[in-house]
Amino acid sequence: MEREVNSKPNRRTVLGATVGAALVGAVATAPAAAAAGAGAASRGVTIRAPRGPLRVTVHLVDGRLRYEVTRRGETLVASSGLGLDLAERPSLTEGLEIESVERATVDETWRPVWGPDATVRNHASECVVRTVQPATGTRLDVVFRVFEDGVGFRYRLPAQEGLDRYTVTAERTEFALPADATSWSLAAGTDWNADERHYRRAPLGEVATAQTPLTLATARGTHVVVHEAALVDYPSMTLAATGDDRPGALASELISLPDGNKAHLEGAFSTPWRTLTIGDRAGDLAESHLIENLNEPCALDDTSWITAGTYVGVWWELQRRDTTWTEGPRHGATTARVKEYIDLAREAGASHVLAEGWNTNAGGEWTGQDFLTPRDDFDLPEVLRYAEANGVRFVAHNETRGFVDYYEEHLDTIFGRYAELGIDAIKTGYATRFELGGVNRSHYDQEAVRHYQRVIDAAARHRIMINAHEAIKPTGLARTHPHMMTGEGVAGMEQHNYMGKDGNPPEQATILPFTRFMGGPADYTPGVLNVTWDPAGLGTRVQTTSAAQLALYTVFFSPLQMLADTPENYRAHPGFAYLTDMPASWDETRFLDCEIGDHTVAARRKGDLWYLGAITDEHDRTLRVPLRFLGRGRYAAEIYQDAAETTWRENPLPIDIRTETVRASTTLRLRLVAGGGTAIRFRPL
């Protein structure tokens, strides 16, 4: 359960009206004598980070709120408009007046149930700018929080007469970013696999549309990520070039409902936060907790049932077409085969075993599934008995194939039965369509977002952890709902099958920590050590070396992290020793030497053990890595790296394993072959 540690009282300075409930947990308010008049506020409101040079300035220009973001004299967001459009009302981008400004300080330290760090500092300056449109009486607040590592802001429509039910037709948030910045992004899309593509590198001024997160590096080397936090009851935000004379200027573009509107709302409402994560280094982005901090604290009274861990299962052999989802002579999820994976889980210290294709009518057209009836060759009670006897739990695969109405109607029945059986984890899927409310819609519109939340709520009632595939991108909601463990939304391991002979190019792994992973964990499913295994003659393979697959366990984070290869492939490869007892939640994380698209070096600590992963793109490179993160004394560094004869394309399997004695004063010289990597476990001596 999330707990406050050494929590300081939140301090609030009030300018204008009485303090509202914008800051959860506020315990003190400053006297109203600190108020400034609306006239002063209209000349500009400045919000500075509690410490550091980051600053946001808010102005009212010709009746529209505008904001700027600067840092050390560098303009990161030039003057950019704010506002919403509501149906049958004048746009809230015009005719506004600032009524009051309220200030506060957020300062707390909290403990995640799981995460890359054991404790998280949440420290920000908050400012609520309250506006009114005199012509209509409509009130709109904009809440800003400025952290040392970025900015979050959201719209809040307070309860008010005449706004009981209303419709958002557009959001008018602008981000006038530096046009000459280098960017990494995915093109915006509404398809089920819009987030499962390869990141493109381009000058920001050439980007027409983008999914978020969108990442950029300015000419001065400042790194920025545009994303959103706390996406609840609202459509996903994409970005589109404004089309005016400001290259690099992007505007929010919300995913539409089938009726063309963006959101149907009732009463007081706060939108998701629009976020800018900012750092000097690429590594600063990956180490940031800004997205989580903009979410509400844990909503669960008891989190003892939520446990991070690795898992194995019938999956990669299906992807490689060695076995099938459907029943028949090559069916994968048989009782005997899943028992073999349970044995593997016991050997690896994995907590769970997954079986895809275990339930009736999984595979083929995926129609008529009930998610409760096993196949004839899959004895669920026996599998659960054998798993429990070996200290392993079962992950039930729920691939809806987009028949969402049926799934929603039976959620509590399905989850209730799982709870009775002792099944505490599911892997959901929404491949291809998304039929909800009798309509085939986008996976990312408001009603889809509401569905994902209903699954989260139902799972909490039955104490079930979720691994969601083809679902909405993460926006830090795991802080509030920590049983929402991980998800897809990434061109993961399976895309080595489906993106042609080139699969995922090596550079993608060096981009993901600073793009997709900014929102939260990803179920990338690493750990395929036999990267050339092609039992069905598909003509495709994993585009890394075996050593690089080991390094991904430190570079990528997921509290349910798969050991994706088969029992036979693991037992035949010496690198499997590195994966045994692999942590899935950490006490401390450092991103060391990172250049987006080139190479990434990350280190994570669990107890007194440190793990380090280093990966590179399609170029050979040698990196010098100081070990200053280690504690005092000597460490045994168990090093798994590409062998002298290893090459990414022709000979990717050989691995060299050795142990060296090192200290914090040691600098390691890591030779990385193209598409390769190095994985190291440090044990104190």
TrEMBL record:
Boundaries of each Glycosyl-hydrolase 97 N-terminal domain copy? Answer: 48-297
Name the UniProt key words of this record, in alphabetical order: Hydrolase, Signal
Q: Which residues form the signal peptide?
A: 1-32
Q: Which residues form the Glycosyl-hydrolase 97 C-terminal oligomerisation domain?
A: 585-682
- Pfam families linked: GH97_C, GH97_N, Glyco_hydro_97
The organism sits in which domain of life?
Bacteria
An example of a GO molecular function for this protein is: hydrolase activity
Q: Where is the Glycosyl-hydrolase 97 catalytic domain?
A: 315-490
Q: Does the keyword Transmembrane helix apply?
A: no
Cross-referenced PANTHER family: GLUCAN 1,4-ALPHA-GLUCOSIDASE SUSB, GLUCAN 1,4-ALPHA-GLUCOSIDASE SUSB-RELATED
- Under which name does UniProt file this protein? Glycoside hydrolase family 97 protein
Please give the organism: Streptomyces sedi
- Origin organism lineage: Bacteria, Bacillati, Actinomycetota, Actinomycetes, Kitasatosporales
